[in-house]
Amino acid sequence: MGEFFLKILFCLLFLKSSHGGKPYMGYKEASSYTTTAIPGGYDYIVIGGGTAGCPLAATLSEKYSVLLLERGGSPYGNINVSRFENFHISLADLTSGSPSQAFVSTDGVINARARVLGGGTCINAGFYSRASPSYVRKAGWDGELVNKSFPWVERQIVQWPDLAPWQKALRDGLLGAGVAPFNGYTYDHVFGTKVGGTIFDKDGFRHTAADLLSAGRPENLHVLIHASVQRILFDTRGGRPRAIGVLFKDENGDWHQAPLSSSGGGGGDVILSSGAIGSPQLLLLSGIGPRVDLEKIGIPVVSENAFVGKGMADNPMNSIFIPSKRPIKQSLIQTVGITKFGAFIEASNGYSQSPRASTATTASCPPRCVYAVRTIEKIVHTGSFADLAADDEYPMEVLLNMSVRANVNFVPKHTNDTKSVEQFCRDTVITIWHYHGGCQVGKVVGKDYRVVGVDGLRVVDGSTFVSSPGTNPQATVMMMGRYVGVKILRERLGTGVEI
Question: Where is the signal peptide, in residue numbers (predicted)?
Fold first, then answer.
């Protein structure tokens, strides 16, 4: 009876929201794959059903056959993904079926990567903020198409948050500390203080990139979960290698080969959308990368490229934990201060395991942490926080020492040495999960995201970025999936095609 009740509850969760986005239930297990589904192969094979891969696959399916392969499972029915209040539980889940996969960087920072249909949008804090116009120009993107692609995402899964008490206090505190002007509710990346969008609806239900698959053409879009791609297959008989398909394992460990269509002059592609870690990794496993590295581990070289896996970076985060006077309604990121000294200041609250009623985390990223800590000190002592934060009990030096002990990483700590803010910044560095690079434009791929040195292969995800866009990259990465999908359709069907 209990199991039946839970299943009914999950269905209610799927259908509860009246927002534009709706769950995508057209996926199948990888073991169901058959070569007879699309005789002759697919026009496009997208590896990775994540933040970029889902909108990309949905867009391409409007005109062509698409196979989308995701190594993880479904986000639907997992309340640690779907429910706002379970955000931290999902990240702490270390089981093999978890939607997040933990790893530790070489400098001792604990991190996680997504392993679920919908990618990082299933395990992040939900904040939605566009890249700045200067970022768009630097990326060489068509501004008009960018401004059509962002709303395509937003109509389906994004809305404005109901500002929580802690977020209101942060908004007023930022303004009191001089992070001005107040820009109101906006998706735009602008200096000052603003309230951004969210992929959580009014009922606390998360909408993800997986929902964007519902915009695809069902008869053309085949989505397999628990499909772990092992390598890309190439035809090397000619003068230049061409991607012709992929080799993947299903949930039972059985192997499958999925081919690209050979019709239409070979116009289709294998498209890597496996993220900053997965995409360069799969290129290397498939024989594209530095020759010395590949030969060292016995991988035949298909195309030598010294830049694969290089230039990877992650935005650092430093958190200050502030005990509250009383229980406060939980909140994830809603308000952000975008400073001119290069830091973003934002906060969440109500997720601590401490016996105190509520603990807030105030974060700043990227570098120039010292200026951010000094700004946070001003924020905490504004009147906005007087009714919420127990700042009278905890001077800033005490808060910093508490934060040194609370921040979890494997970096050597210097507790009681927080008079040096620089030392505090070094000791407490953690991630904000915005890693990027590894397949950068101009080094591994061209401006059309085609992999240099081979045909029939592209990379479309955050691994192509030199820097992370905006205060949170998910908006830009989803937009990029839609944007590149439309560009590809226009390449094949003509520039006048309206999608």
Answer: 1-20
